[in-house]
From TrEMBL:
Keywords: ATP-binding, Coenzyme A biosynthesis, Cytoplasm, Kinase, Nucleotide-binding, Transferase. NCBIfam families: PRK13317.1. The keyword Kinase applies. The gene is coaW. It comes from Oceanobacillus piezotolerans. The lineage of its organism: Bacteria, Bacillati, Bacillota, Bacilli, Bacillales. This is Type II pantothenate kinase. GO terms for cellular component: cytosol.
Amino acid sequence: MIDRIGMDAGGSLIKLAYEERGHLHTKTYNPHELKELVNWIQLVSPNAQLFLTGGKSALVQSHFTQKCFVVDEFPAAIAGTKLLLEMEKKKVKDEFILVSIGTGTSIFYVTKEKEVRLLGTGIGGGTLLGLGSLITGRNDFHHLAELALKGKHEQSDLLVADIYAPNEPPVPGHLTAANFGKAHENMKARVEDHVAALNQLIGEVVISLAQQAAANKQVEHIVFIGSTLSGNKALKDVLASFTSLMPYQPVFLDKGAYAGAAGALYV
């Protein structure tokens, strides 16, 4: 019997974490599937205590008759990250930068003694879905993630090499000079190229901010969590692609999308 359920009700998804027979299990629902979520909990564990976090937790709470506890979003995400790092046996130093890429992105400095939110940006999963739907005509995250893997961002992005050609550029030519800088003139660029460029833009903005935070705090590891990374290899590749230019070590958690729910569960 499940007696506790952690629930992270974010801007785009509702993530669940619960323990059964000593193992951590996870589930995901879309906001429009709230009725199905309520029915599932009533079916499997009607007396479970619910530990809610995330921006939509108050809205979700009103749909349940079970006893509910609301946990602050940022402490839950950080606690869940520490738990998952241990469960997944990821080797990370005691001090690290945590980057949570959900609908938007938040960046934290985490140590054994404290955690501080340093900054955030509106660039994140909401950007991917919003601009992605304008590019493709479809509001489907998994479709966008698949398209990005098939695309070549350099068909849509203006690279440093494009500007300096045929001469040798003063910085690596593969770096982006202007995101979507060729989208208006390269008629050979495909939809998947533009989606790849969108992932490139999101990844470049996020890693630029995260690495500046890491340099400021003099830490090596940057841990990435959030549902925007789930099944999105293209974005992960962008976030990990600058290690030869900047001193950081990227760490991706397998269940990173559920850090908030896991943190709420074990609060």
